């Protein structure tokens, strides 16, 4: 279903983009302000980032507890903001019924912030906690080191995040600069508002006119031009396995951003004949990434990052990169530009409302390169190859057409659903989005190492499927493997057929070990990654067996495995194709028992050891309706107490979660100052006091029930809810039953559940990167 895009300018000068996308179920708004950290006064590093935080603290029109963040969370949406070097972005996504309220709050908070000094002092400590975490994060420090290539005169090499010392909130000069920055840049002439959703353009236009007028009238301010980069590409060797090549490019013509995306698409393509495939064939490459670290006013800093294996020669890798660029510069790009157009159409159809609004705010279209873009690409490559040999010597090839971009619907007679697969009707075929989950229970001690083989083997298919708007995920959790595939139903069926072939017999090169990508070492994220296995009862990481593995080991693993799965959203013909593909399923169909959690308090100390304390608390809940309502009412007080009043840290959250078929409250805190015993003590005190504060407001119940309507949930959320119910052993669950149960919850029931949670009647699972505070924990 095609989108309709429309641009307009309001009377106050606000630039607006409207996108009517009938396939969407949610709406999104993105505000892009043409001002970022490099536009703030040099005397106050971090001022722009600090202001971004202040907007969310409430104002006279909407107090903190009724502001954008609480409102969006209350309606089951998502909200965030980002301060870049020359722009700042604010965005949210909600169901259509909540869109007007969210848009009003977004525009009001940006146009009329509150500069209360006490709030500023408190929020500065949050910024400082972020700064401490950033300064200790290896990935962040590596990126900061890369930016030094811009040269000491360029603001990219300067500190811009802000901390306790750069944000001198008591200084009158700082306050004047803060207000002056807001007045200069947060006015209509400097802002683009982008709206996307299933509504018609007339309705979106009315919303923009109604709420966009709150910004003061203004003309666009010309942002200062940056100084020139250093004049040469810089090669950084961080260690023997990491190679970073930087290309500072400037004086590029308009349209160069899409040219960069075009180049990144084909340079990163892993099919035979390209750079990654050539390096992997030599056993040199573990991981490759290519992106722009910065773009503004004809400047871009491009980064090619290689994680190398031991036999690799860094200089030869760099030479091959140069050789590929030389080949690409002289190649006939007409065929892959047509392929790029097909890829862009798939990206547009697969994008969420939020992704569409954010992209529209940048002005980039989902099109092939036009004449301007091709000219920008030519100049970009000329700049990257300046002073280097430009005649390719290697036999490179452009990637062949991706067959998944042109899969045709097959017409098959209705086939029998295979034993082991449940077909859920919760996601209607009219959504044109199919999701299938396949799960194996395994007994082999080699499953960890064999999973690594299969994960590598699926990489090419995963990337091809992503180009066609289909997600392919193979995950491992203790004794279970899970394959999830989601997207256009016709393409999903074709992908599953190929995936099962690969899982049965992966290509020979997949058996060669490679260095896995290093996960983010932020402690709270590390605990979140480990939570599913801990819920299943896995307590320690066992070392992988060191023996040689082969196809016979994989055959034996499949022979002794049992599988089941669930599909939803497929038409009858698509389901028939899927059923046929599943005839090649490895393993035997069988039932998997639901996960059970012991009703005890369990504390599990897990890596990584870090300078900041991180803690996750999972509280199992049997009554899903009351549990979701409790989570809704806990979210605000939890954030207010631990994040705002106690200022424990910037990573503070609470939510209802379904993990491995288990329902529960998930509470998380990462703190640079509080000890684990203090964190869990604050949580316990909050939970102890919670029951007396609870009441079943009909409006709250209605709002929560509305979030769980199929028409308001994303397609993936509907399928995931069905899958979690399947894992819990429920047959053909109905969202309408859950909605009715939510509306029937009364205050005594909610308070009783809160007391059970506080007393850990159904158990507590606490994951922390430190030891238990007392012997009361198992």
Automatic annotation (TrEMBL):
<dbReference type="InterPro" id="IPR007863">
    <property type="entry name" value="Peptidase_M16_C"/>
</dbReference>
<keyword id="KW-0378">Hydrolase</keyword>
<keyword id="KW-0482">Metalloprotease</keyword>
<protein>
    <submittedName>
        <fullName>Coenzyme PQQ biosynthesis protein PqqF</fullName>
    </submittedName>
</protein>
<keyword id="KW-0645">Protease</keyword>
<comment type="similarity">
    <text>Belongs to the peptidase M16 family.</text>
</comment>
<dbReference type="GO" id="GO:0008270">
    <property type="term" value="F:zinc ion binding"/>
</dbReference>
<dbReference type="InterPro" id="IPR011765">
    <property type="entry name" value="Pept_M16_N"/>
</dbReference>
<dbReference type="InterPro" id="IPR050626">
    <property type="entry name" value="Peptidase_M16"/>
</dbReference>
<dbReference type="GO" id="GO:0018189">
    <property type="term" value="P:pyrroloquinoline quinone biosynthetic process"/>
</dbReference>
<dbReference type="InterPro" id="IPR054734">
    <property type="entry name" value="PqqF-like_C_4"/>
</dbReference>
<feature type="domain" description="Peptidase M16 C-terminal">
    <location>
        <begin position="177"/>
        <end position="332"/>
    </location>
</feature>
<feature type="domain" description="Coenzyme PQQ synthesis protein F-like C-terminal lobe">
    <location>
        <begin position="629"/>
        <end position="723"/>
    </location>
</feature>
<dbReference type="InterPro" id="IPR054733">
    <property type="entry name" value="PqqF_C_3"/>
</dbReference>
<dbReference type="InterPro" id="IPR011249">
    <property type="entry name" value="Metalloenz_LuxS/M16"/>
</dbReference>
<feature type="domain" description="Coenzyme PQQ synthesis protein F C-terminal lobe">
    <location>
        <begin position="434"/>
        <end position="566"/>
    </location>
</feature>
<dbReference type="Pfam" id="PF05193">
    <property type="entry name" value="Peptidase_M16_C"/>
</dbReference>
<dbReference type="GO" id="GO:0006508">
    <property type="term" value="P:proteolysis"/>
</dbReference>
<keyword id="KW-0862">Zinc</keyword>
<keyword id="KW-0479">Metal-binding</keyword>
<dbReference type="Pfam" id="PF22456">
    <property type="entry name" value="PqqF-like_C_4"/>
</dbReference>
<dbReference type="InterPro" id="IPR011844">
    <property type="entry name" value="PQQ_synth_PqqF"/>
</dbReference>
<feature type="domain" description="Peptidase M16 N-terminal">
    <location>
        <begin position="16"/>
        <end position="156"/>
    </location>
</feature>
<dbReference type="GO" id="GO:0004222">
    <property type="term" value="F:metalloendopeptidase activity"/>
</dbReference>
<dbReference type="Pfam" id="PF00675">
    <property type="entry name" value="Peptidase_M16"/>
</dbReference>
<dbReference type="Pfam" id="PF22455">
    <property type="entry name" value="PqqF_C_3"/>
</dbReference>
């Amino acid at each position: 279903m095609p989108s309709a895009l429309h641009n307009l300018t309001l009377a106050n000068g606000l630039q607006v983009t409207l996108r009517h996308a009938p396939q969407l179920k949610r709406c999104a708004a993105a505000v892009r302000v043409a001002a970022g950290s490099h536009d703030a006064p040099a005397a106050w590093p971090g001022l722009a980032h600090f202001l971004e935080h202040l907007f969310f603290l409430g104002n006279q029109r909407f107090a903190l507890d009724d502001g954008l963040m609480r409102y969006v969370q209350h309606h089951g949406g998502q909200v965030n903001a980002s301060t870049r070097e020359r722009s700042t972005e604010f965005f949210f996504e909600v169901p259509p019924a909540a869109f007007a309220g969210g848009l009003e709050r977004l525009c009001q908070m940006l146009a009329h912030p509150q500069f209360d000094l006490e709030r500023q002092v408190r929020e500065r400590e949050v910024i400082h906690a972020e700064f401490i975490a950033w300064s200790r994060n290896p990935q962040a420090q590596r990126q900061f080191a890369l930016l030094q290539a811009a040269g000491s005169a360029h603001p990219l090499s300067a500190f811009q995040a802000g901390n306790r010392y750069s944000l001198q909130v008591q200084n009158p000069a700082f306050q004047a600069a803060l207000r002056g920055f807001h007045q200069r840049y947060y006015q209509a002439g400097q802002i683009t508002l982008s709206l996307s959703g299933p509504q018609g353009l007339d309705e979106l236009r009315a919303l923009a006119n109604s709420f966009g007028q709150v910004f003061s009238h203004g003309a666009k301010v010309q942002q200062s031009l940056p100084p020139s980069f250093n004049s040469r590409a810089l090669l950084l060797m961080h260690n023997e396995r990491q190679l970073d090549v930087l290309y500072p490019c400037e004086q590029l013509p308009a349209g160069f951003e899409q040219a960069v995306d075009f180049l990144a698409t084909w340079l990163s393509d892993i099919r035979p004949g390209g750079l990654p495939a050539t390096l992997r064939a030599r056993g040199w490459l573990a991981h490759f990434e290519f992106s722009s670290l910065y773009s503004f006013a004809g400047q871009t800093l491009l980064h090619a990052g290689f994680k190398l294996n031991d036999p690799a020669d860094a200089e030869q890798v760099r030479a091959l990169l140069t050789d590929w660029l030389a080949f690409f510069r002289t190649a006939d790009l007409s065929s892959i530009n047509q392929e790029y157009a097909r890829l862009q159409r798939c990206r547009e159809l697969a994008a969420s409302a939020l992704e569409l609004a954010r992209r529209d705010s940048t002005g980039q279209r989902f099109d092939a390169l036009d004449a301007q873009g091709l000219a920008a690409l030519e100049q970009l490559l000329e700049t990257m190859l300046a002073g280097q040999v430009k005649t390719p010597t290697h036999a490179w090839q452009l990637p062949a057409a991706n067959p998944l971009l042109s899969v045709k619907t097959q017409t098959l007679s209705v086939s029998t659903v295979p034993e082991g697969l449940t077909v859920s009707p919760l996601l209607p075929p009219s959504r044109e989005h199919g999701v299938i989950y396949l799960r194996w229970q395994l007994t082999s001690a080699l499953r960890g190492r064999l999973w690594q083989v299969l994960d590598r083997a699926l990489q090419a298919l995963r990337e091809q499927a992503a180009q066609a708007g289909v997600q392919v995920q193979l995950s491992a959790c203790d004794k279970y493997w899970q394959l999830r595939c989601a997207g256009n139903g016709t393409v999903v069926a074709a992908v599953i057929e190929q995936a099962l072939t690969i899982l049965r017999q992966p290509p020979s090169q997949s058996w060669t070990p490679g260095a896995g990508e290093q996960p983010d070492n932020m402690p709270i994220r590390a605990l979140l990654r480990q939570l599913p296995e801990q819920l299943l009862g896995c307590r320690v990481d066992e070392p992988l067996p060191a023996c040689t593995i082969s196809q016979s080991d994989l055959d034996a693993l499949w022979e002794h495995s049992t599988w089941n799965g669930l599909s939803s959203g497929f038409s009858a013909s698509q389901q028939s194709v899927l059923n046929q593909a599943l005839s090649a399923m490895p393993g035997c169909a069988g039932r998997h028992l639901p996960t059970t959690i012991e009703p005890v308090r369990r504390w599990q100390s897990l890596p990584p050891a870090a300078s900041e304390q991180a803690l996750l608390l999972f509280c199992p809940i049997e009554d899903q309706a009351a549990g979701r309502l409790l989570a809704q009412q806990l979210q605000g007080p939890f954030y207010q107490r631990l994040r705002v009043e106690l200022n424990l840290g910037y990573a503070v959250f609470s939510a209802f979660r379904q993990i491995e078929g288990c329902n529960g409250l998930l509470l998380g805190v990462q703190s640079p100052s509080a000890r684990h015993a203090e964190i869990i003590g604050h949580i316990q005190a909050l939970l102890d006091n919670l029951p007396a504060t609870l009441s079943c407001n009909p409006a709250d119940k209605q709002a929560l029930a509305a979030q769980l309507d199929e028409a308001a949930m994303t397609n993936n959320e509907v399928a995931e809810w069905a899958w979690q119910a399947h894992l819990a052993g429920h047959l053909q669950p109905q969202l309408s039953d859950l909605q009715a149960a939510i509306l029937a919850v009364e205050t005594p029931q909610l308070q009783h559940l809160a007391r059970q949670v506080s007393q850990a009647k159904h158990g507590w699972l606490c994951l922390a990167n430190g030891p238990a505070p007392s012997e009361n924990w198992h």
